[in-house]
Write a structure and sequence with these properties.
By secondary structure, the protein is an alpha+beta fold. The chain contains 19 helices and 28 strands.
Length: 598
């Protein structure tokens, strides 16, 4: 296997053959996905970076990798400083960096199937100031030098039944047709994989841990649709499910289909549809309406079937996690566990439910200094032994047909230090502050983010990631448009109003580089709140995750009476729901963990 330095050199040689002076390599696919199939892991293949967000730029004499605060430590561990400069975003954008570093009059290549039109316009403008040119490539040069590049997945689609989905695909398409009619539009392009999965009530196995299929769709104003996927991916059962109103076409026909839309009024999402889609529509003479994909908000506001399914998934997942935490507490002091072996055992507990479809992401199994890397990914090379005196952080989740889970817990191995307990308690206080927040309908996640940070801010500390992300219904564990984060935080804006029915995570943290990391994560449901005398509609959060929060890390003297009351009530609910599924030693262990805080 070639070294990363060899791969960088091979790309530079290919760029010379292509008459290019540089190339931009984002971590995404033709659907602007956060999580991508193996064939699209171009950034990881080129640099060694294993995070879920980043971009690289390769020039003849220099190369840079751009990551946000979640990956400050990780990128330095995984990407060689001998070959790459580390550039922080959003402090420095890729376009701004190109404007400063691209050679005068240079030709900088980009793949139009991997960037939005807005990015293209920004980069083109920055380069123009140096007389440089942004050039769309017909073939990605990394694909030309990546000899072992996997082919896109050929896994077959499956049907998400109407009872679990809560609404038929025909009903969803009818709502999209109504949306089009309101805007006097003829069709809408769906290119986001989770939007397509939700709209057509199908799931797939083309992206690790995210049950989506590589497909595109065009939904027309009469509720009919065209569904583009590679031949062989649709079984007879899926075709029957889609019905006569959905015309199945080869994925390879998609660009030509866009160009054939003529002078129709066509909606396309400027954030989720790549530049090539807009280019193809333009080439065919379509009148483009740059509008957000209508599925995005509909998918984010869960219906009653999706909510009840998620509750069932949480009750099931909670049992698996409790069994793991009990096992870990007994086994870790013996000194035989590693980050990898602990993650494998947790997966076994989830698999023992008998209905686990997949993990919802690679488990973050991190001890000691590795836990200070928020999005750490354990490998054979990085896996550390779990030793006394450390904090062990495990961020994990499961994909079940009725729900997607995501939960983080921290456990001490041996006696935690006073500082560890102080920081953990402050993170818990921030978690509780957000969990108990009441706010007017229309409030954004950006307005709530500081609730979770205040206890850390009071001692001059903080964390370099958002506080909450949306979560899908047996879909992506990271779902928009809802977020709880500082405005314009890396990973997307957090200015979307929160609405009843949305799932989000509540996950403040604290990270001491080189020593330990702390994060407490539960999933929550935005729900209406009936407040006597309220003069406007109000919302709050219902906590959905069911797992004990480690009492050995709590400093009770820091907590208010109200915070203790919340924690005791939460633990009682965990005991009522999860405990009802346990017996014997497991139940007694959970009872101890859920006892009132002294």
């Amino acid at each position: 296997m070639s070294s990363y330095a060899d791969r960088l050199q091979a790309l530079r040689e290919q760029l010379k053959r292509d008459r290019l002076d540089g190339f931009v390599v984002p971590l995404t696919d033709e659907h602007m996905s956060e999580y991508v199939g193996e064939y699209a892991q171009r950034l990881g293949w080129l640099t060694g970076f294993q995070g879920s967000a980043g971009t690289a730029v390769v020039l003849p004499q220099e190369a840079a990798i751009f990551t946000d605060g979640r990956y400050t430590l990780q990128v330095r561990q995984q990407v060689s400083a001998d070959s790459w400069d580390y550039v922080p975003v959003p402090a420095v954008s890729v376009a701004d960096w190109l404007g400063e570093h691209a050679p005068d009059g240079g030709r900088i290549g980009y793949d139009p199937w991997l960037h939005t039109r807005a990015w293209v316009e920004e980069a083109r403008k920055a380069l123009a100031e140096k007389g440089a040119e942004l050039v769309a490539v017909a073939a990605n040069p990394i694909d030309a030098v990546w000899a072992e590049q996997p082919a896109p997945s050929d896994a077959q689609l499956t049907v998400q039944d109407d009872a679990t989905a809560g609404k038929s695909s025909a009903a969803k398409r009818a709502e999209i047709a109504d949306w089009l009619a309101d805007r006097k539009a003829d069709a809408v392009i769906l290119s986001a994989l989770d939007s397509i999965a939700w709209a057509f009530n199908v799931r797939g196995d083309d992206v690790s841990h995210t049950p989506v299929a590589l497909a595109y769709a065009i939904v027309h104003s009469d509720g009919t649709a065209e569904f583009f996927a590679a031949p062989g991916k649709l079984t007879d059962a899926v075709r029957q499910h889609l019905g006569n109103a959905v015309r199945v076409r080869d994925r390879a026909d998609f660009a030509a289909a866009l160009a054939s839309l003529g002078d129709k009024r066509v909606a396309a999402d400027p954030e989720r549809a790549v530049a090539a889609i807009f280019d193809s529509l333009d080439a065919g003479g379509a009148r483009i309406l740059a509008l957000r994909d209508p599925v995005v908000l509909a998918k984010a506001i869960k219906n009653s079937a999706e909510i009840s399914g998620h509750r069932a998934a949480q009750a099931r997942d909670g049992v698996a996690l409790v069994r793991f935490l009990k096992w870990f507490e007994e086994e870790a002091p013996q000194g035989a566990l590693t980050e990898l072996s602990a993650a494998a055992r947790l997966q076994q507990f989830r698999e023992a439910t008998g209905v686990l479809k997949d993990l919802s992401f690679d488990t973050i199994s991190a001890t000691g200094a590795n836990a200070a890397i928020p999005h750490y990914k354990v490998t054979e090379e990085s896996s550390l032994p779990i030793e006394p005196g450390q904090l062990y952080l495990v961020d994990s989740g499961g994909q079940y047909a009725d729900g997607t889970t995501d939960v983080t817990r921290v456990v001490p191995v041996g006696e935690p230090s006073a500082e560890m307990k102080d920081r953990f308690t402050r993170v818990l206080q921030g978690h509780i502050a957000l969990a108990t927040a009441l706010f007017p309908d229309g409030t954004t996640g950006a307005q709530l983010d500081s609730f979770a940070r205040r206890p850390l801010w009071e001692i001059g500390c903080d964390y370099a990631h958002g506080t909450g992300h949306g979560v899908g219904a047996y879909l992506s564990v990271h779902e928009g448009p809802q977020r709880i984060a500082q405005p314009y935080y890396p990973g997307g804006q957090s200015l979307e109003p929160l609405r009843a029915g949305m799932f989000l995570s509540n996950e403040p943290g604290y990270y001491k580089a080189g020593e330990y990391g702390i994060r407490i994560e539960n999933l929550v449901l935005v729900a209406a709140r009936d407040i006597p005398g309220a003069e406007q509609p109000m919302l709050g959060f219902e906590t959905l995750t069911l797992a004990p929060i480690e009492r050995r890390l709590i400093e009770p003297s820091l907590m208010s009476q109200g915070e203790r009351a919340w924690l005791d009530a939460y633990h009682q609910r965990v005991l009522d729901i999860v405990g009802a599924q346990l017996e014997g030693e497991e139940l007694r262990w959970l009872e101890g963990k859920c006892a009132p805080i002294a």
